[in-house]
């Protein structure tokens, strides 16, 4: 039977709304409706807002404030705190100045903004014998960059035998990377 959604979506639905190892659509609907109504009734009172503002004044992170509020019986999510600070900022408030650092925004991938490497040959243009893994000696190289310039890993993969080699380098400098590749391939003449 195909229902048009991924396995992970089905798994999440069963985990969220299943009871005692079984799943009933009618029960799931009731549970979902009850959760929605409970969420709509949530009210963040002036005491909680006070705790949030005091915590921000003490330079606590929204995550820390959220944990303290939960412990004292006034639960509030860190996301709500970030939204509250942003709303305050939009209304001319200064609460955002108390954040240690701005909330990190989700960054999409690089997409097509990257400029192509000059003289690079597209993977679609490689010979058929390489594409079909018809001979030994065709290596694919890649460079996996570490976080914020903490080095990189040079990877080599032989297409036919599927031998994989890796070596850590401390920068993505062309000289260092090419030296690493030469030393990795020195045993494969």
Automatic annotation (TrEMBL):
One of its GO terms (biological process) is transposition. InterPro entries: Transposase-Integrase (IPR051917), Transposase_IS30-like (IPR053392). GO terms for cellular component: cytosol. One of its GO terms (molecular function) is transposase activity. Signal peptide: none annotated. It comes from the Bacteria. Coiled coil: none annotated. NCBIfam families: transpos_IS30 (NF033563). This is IS30 family transposase.
């Amino acid at each position: 039977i195909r229902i048009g959604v991924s396995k992970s979506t089905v798994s999440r639905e069963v985990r969220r709304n299943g009871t005692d190892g079984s799943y009933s659509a009618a029960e799931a609907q009731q549970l979902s409706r009850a959760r929605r109504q409970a969420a709509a009734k949530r009210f963040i009172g002036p005491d909680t807002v006070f705790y949030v503002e005091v915590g921000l004044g003490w330079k606590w992170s929204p995550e820390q404030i959220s944990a303290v509020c939960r412990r004292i019986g006034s639960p509030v999510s860190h996301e709500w705190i970030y939204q509250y600070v942003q709303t305050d900022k939009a209304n001319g408030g200064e609460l955002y100045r108390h954040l240690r650092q701005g909330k990190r925004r989700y960054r999409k991938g690089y997409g097509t903004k990257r400029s192509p490497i000059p003289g690079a040959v597209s993977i679609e243009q490689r010979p058929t014998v390489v594409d079909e893994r018809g001979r030994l000696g065709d290596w694919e190289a890649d460079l996996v960059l570490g976080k914020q310039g903490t080095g990189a890993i040079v990877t080599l993969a032989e297409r036919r035998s599927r031998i994989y080699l890796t070596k850590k380098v401390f920068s993505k400098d062309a000289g260092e990377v090419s030296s690493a590749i030469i030393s990795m391939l020195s045993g494969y003449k």
